[in-house]
Design brief:
Helix content is 68%, strand content 1%. It has helices at residues 16-44, 49-72, 92-100, 104-127, 135-157, 169-188, 191-195, 197-209, 218-222, 241-269, 275-294, 304-313, 318-333, 335-342, 346-368, 378-394, 404-410, 413-429, 444-450; strands at residues 85-87, 300-302. It has a two-stranded antiparallel sheet with strand order 1-2. Helix 3 (92-100) packs antiparallel against helix 4 (104-127), helix 5 runs antiparallel to helix 18 and helix 13 (318-333) packs across helix 14. The longest helix is centred in the N-terminal third of the chain and has 29 residues, at 16-44.
Length: 451
């Protein structure tokens, strides 16, 4: 009898009901972050409510398409791992500056299109840099990603940044309740239910939030049933040298962040990312960013919060996240559905976020457990990289007096920490050692940590 090769968990296709539940869980985990970028940029440019709604539906549509490209893949586009795509926060400050200094949305979209093309063209070269991401670097970067996301969960738990009543005890109580529900389901529920613990926590939290006045669904009735995003809705893109230059810096930052996320998912799913697959993932980022410029939205990158969800639930199928991409496409085409999801109060998401983002940080520690810290300077590499990565998280204005291009790189704790880890690993583990110091590859454990 012929035997069929076992299917890798990444390629398994769960039953439809599980696909829908797991996929919706991923959507809820990233929704607040996905709509935040168009809200911030549109509000800074004083767009009308109708234009803001248009930006959000366009963003959700392209988020879904970008996620499908990344998970399903075609030709040399897509890493084919469970990766959610969303607008990058690294581009917010440059886009606000471009949009409010005379260029408007057409100038933003022109620079976004150029940045997307640059990412696609640079992807093969960037893929060859994978050898500079040994466990010492990847573990440090994954740890930084998780810890840098925790303030996001904290802001949600307190009610959402800038919200009326921010930090009120009732907000934190609701977030704590959701956290307890998630933990209880994960610990005591049957296997299938434990894998959708975040979804159950959000649903139960929402059920409690409505009668206590945390939210209402009044906006659902006002939303349209159908919304179609058309190319260049806000005008033909324009190309300004300064805008393009700043967005190219953003492109390098997002490529660095995406590399860290792809490596993290590869570690969690036992399908290590190789140079070719990294290039395919980055090329998909570039294509998605070009689509963003065409369909009235912004640059795209892998979303770290969903990396945490993969680690927490141990559901490794890329088809689950592809289903989430399909749901996002529906939300982008049906604004009324999007309004339902938007009604979920921030504290509910905060309670779930604490678990997910903490899981990312713990995964980084797990990777660092493979590294040999005896008789070398690896501890220094981790310590300084984490410190540099956390600096803009703890002190957001620390680089406010520096040039815009440097702020773009350093204000992202993920990119700042990642670059620091790469440079320090090269300095301590690849350059010739000090006189009398032990040889770097004298021990097998060190070789695996620094190669």
């Amino acid at each position: 009898m012929a035997t069929t090769a076992p299917v890798h968990p990444v390629d398994e296709v769960p039953p439809v009901r599980q696909l829908a539940a797991f996929g919706l869980q991923h959507v809820l985990a990233m929704y607040a972050g996905a709509v935040a970028v168009p809200l911030i940029v549109g509000s800074a440019m004083k767009l009308s409510a109708a234009d803001l709604a248009y930006l959000i539906t366009a963003d959700l549509l392209v988020c879904g398409i970008a996620t499908l490209v990344q998970c399903v893949g075609f030709w040399r586009f897509g890493v084919r791992l469970p990766i959610m795509q969303g607008c990058t926060f690294a581009a917010v400050s440059p886009m606000v500056l471009i949009g409010t200094t005379g260029g408007g949305l057409p100038a933003i979209y022109g620079s976004v299109i150029v940045a997307g093309l640059a990412i696609a063209l640079l992807a093969p070269a960037f893929g060859k840099l994978l050898r500079f991401f040994p466990p010492l670097v990847t573990g440090t970067v994954i740890l930084i990603i998780g810890v840098s996301l925790l303030p996001v969960a904290g802001n949600w738990a307190a009610g959402g940044q800038g919200a009326k009543g921010f930090g009120e005890p009732k907000n934190l109580a609701l977030a704590g309740f959701v956290l307890l529900v998630v933990l209880g389901v994960q610990r005591f529920a049957p296997a299938f239910l434990s894998r959708i613990a975040v979804l159950i926590g959000i649903v139960v939290g929402l059920a409690v939030a409505v009668p206590f006045g945390f939210t209402d669904f009044g906006g659902v009735g006002d939303a349209d049933w159908l919304g179609i995003s058309t190319p260049f809705h806000f005008g033909t893109p324009t190309f300004h040298a300064s805008a393009v230059a700043s967005m190219l810096v953003v492109a390098l930052v997002t490529m660095t962040e995406t590399t860290g996320d792809l490596i993290a998912v590869g570690e969690m799913t036992d399908r290590r990312v190789e140079p070719r697959t990294l290039a395919d993932g980055l090329r998909a980022d570039g294509l998605s960013t070009v689509l963003g410029g065409v369909f009235n939205t912004f640059p795209y990158t892998a979303y770290a919060q969903n990396v945490g969800l993969v680690g927490m639930t141990r559901v490794r199928s890329r088809w689950v996240v592809a289903a989430a991409g399909g749901i996002l496409v529906l939300l982008g085409l049906l604004p009324k559905l999007g309004a339902v999801v938007a009604a979920i109060p921030a504290p509910v998401l905060g309670g779930a976020g604490l678990v997910m983002f903490g899981t990312v940080a713990a995964s980084g520690l797990k990777t660092l457990a493979q590294v040999d810290f005896k008789g070398n300077d690896n501890l220094t590499v981790v310590a300084v990289s984490v410190a540099v990565g956390m600096l803009p998280v703890g002190v957001p204005t620390v680089y406010a007096q520096f040039p815009d291009w440097l702020q773009t790189v350093m204000n992202s704790g993920i990119s700042a920490g990642c670059l620091t880890a790469i440079v320090l690993n090269l300095l301590f583990n690849h350059l010739p050692g000090k006189a009398g110091s032990p040889t770097k590859d004298a021990e097998p454990g060190e070789a695996s940590a620094t190669a």
